[in-house]
Amino acid sequence: MRKIYDLFVSGGRDSVVAATVAYDEARQQGVECRVVYINVLKAFEVPEGLLPHNPLDYVRRFTEWLGADLVVIEPKFNYWEGVKRWGYPHLVHRRWCFQHLKKEPLIEFTEGEVREGYEPVHVLGIRWEESWLRARKFPSKWEVWKVGSVWVKQYFPILDWSSEKVRRYIKERGVPENPLWSVGFSCECLCMAGMSAKQLDRMISMYPDLFMWLAEKDREVQKYAKERETYVRPLCDLRIPLYKYVEEKLRQPTIEKFMSQSSRPTS
185-202: per-residue pLDDT in tens? Predict the structure, then answer.
């Protein structure tokens, strides 16, 4: 069996820092490693040109900087068919997106690795500081978990790091920055299950073309939801479909547009 570090990178700060730390350690130990990216966006079928920044583009750039090989895993599942069947995913009650978009592709990939003679170590950018639940679930930097039919080691190299230490490491190590870090929205997963209403408003104003497309997809979804109410998580309390909300928001003038119109001379 050949030991290999699978550096799972989503494009977020924690994942790229964990990957960089583990990559440096692996090189010192003579252990093979590679960057692994689960291309969740594949399941959303977003038309080319709508995404302001495709996370995969950054992951490719980061992998090249790191000097590692890149493996891209893609789900075989269509997200919109899932929404029509089960409704929009929610983090607590209906998190089916994780099962079909991440877990199933990961199981297939990992079982394939073992069949090829690898002994994989999954490297993840999990930190205790993120939540007390993570601190309970991941008590140490090394754990063992079952992925499908095989047992795999997990390694969390920055488990006890603070957010400040992560940011400082990025600067000192010269890790390439992802343009989406300043936005606060990864564009990796468009299910909006972890998004607040305030974040949704911000994303609609920043990426109107993308959310106009999402609104059209939602309009299609609503045709299949006659016997139940289907809302994205940020709009559950408002009980309004995404397409209506987006249309309403995009009809509202921005502050810049309002000011420009107000400053025009009257005849």
Answer: 666 678 888 888 998 998
